[in-house]
Amino acid sequence: MKALSQQRRHPLAVLVLMVLALLLTGGLYAVATTTNEAKAQTQTYTAQDVEEGQKLFLANCSTCHGMDGAGTPSGPSLVGVGAAAVDFQVGTGRMPMQMNGPQAEKKPVQFDDEQVQQLAGYVATLGAGPNVPEQEYLDVAEGNAANGAKVFLANCAMCHNAAGAGGALTRGKYAPSLMEVEEKHIYEAMQTGPQNMPVFNDANITPEEKRDVITYLKTLETAPSPGGFALGSLGPVSEGLFVWSIGLAVIIGFTVWLTSRSA
């Protein structure tokens, strides 16, 4: 009987089962992702916001991103980037760019809060994307700094430094310091992955974990330096080189001073 049942099994049965398992896993992942991201997709924009945002877009952004936001050789498409990407890029002054370079530099914001909201509202109509986060995920008092440290060290510290002080990347690019950055901009950066940063959607880092990361970074801003002068929290290699250079200069200076006195 056992031999007969093995003969009746179709040779493609295992392959079919694997395909079905992959489809089921993918479907469950898509449902979970949609459910999590829906938490931050509740902000709505009025028709007037969208209309005014379109005017601002055509006057300030269309040269690089195209009249319909679909992109040009000078700028990427904005279809599907969502309101969060606009709020981050424009709200931190990185956009509009002042000049071409390895990455957009942070500079004084060129639009007021209402105009930023209008631009975000218009771009949100170009395609579904992450929206500006809800206030409940920006409340550092509700976050867990200890858990935020774990999430940050596992996902962010390799570029931004364990103390959030930033660091150099390749080809003139860099990971900026995260000190004194607004809570919503930290959240939006994780959501949208600006510049060289990967996207950490709500399936990778949940909204609650993003809030924990923000709490951890805000804790670092007010934490004292138990070792004295923090040297910018650049890390043991940079700090060690700094101390070694200063120490060597002091030794050389002292040696020159002793020699001059002997002469």
UniProtKB/TrEMBL annotation:
Location(s) in or outside the cell: Cell membrane
Domain Cytochrome c: 48-127, 143-221
Taxonomic path: Bacteria, Bacillati, Actinomycetota, Actinomycetes, Micrococcales
Binding positions (heme c 1): 61, 64-65
Organism, scientific name: Kocuria dechangensis
Domain of life: Bacteria
One protein family per Pfam: Cytochrom_C
Annotated Gene3D superfamilies: Cytochrome c-like domain
Membrane topology: Multi-pass membrane protein
GO cellular component, one term: plasma membrane
Keyword vocabulary terms for this entry: Cell membrane, Electron transport, Heme, Iron, Membrane, Metal-binding, Repeat, Respiratory chain, Translocase, Transmembrane, Transmembrane helix, Transport
The name this protein goes by in its record: Cytochrome bc1 complex cytochrome c subunit
Catalytic activity: a quinol + 2 Fe(III)-[cytochrome c](out) = a quinone + 2 Fe(II)-[cytochrome c](out) + 2 H(+)(out)
Record text on subunit structure and interactions: The cytochrome bc1 complex is composed of a cytochrome b (QcrB), the Rieske iron-sulfur protein (QcrA) and a diheme cytochrome c (QcrC) subunit.
EC number, as in UniProt: 7.1.1.8
Changes after translation: Binds 2 heme c groups covalently per subunit.
GO function terms (MF aspect): heme binding; iron ion binding; quinol-cytochrome-c reductase activity
Ranges that cross the membrane: 241-259
Annotated heme c 2 binding sites: 156, 159-160
Main localization of the protein described in the UniProt heading: membrane
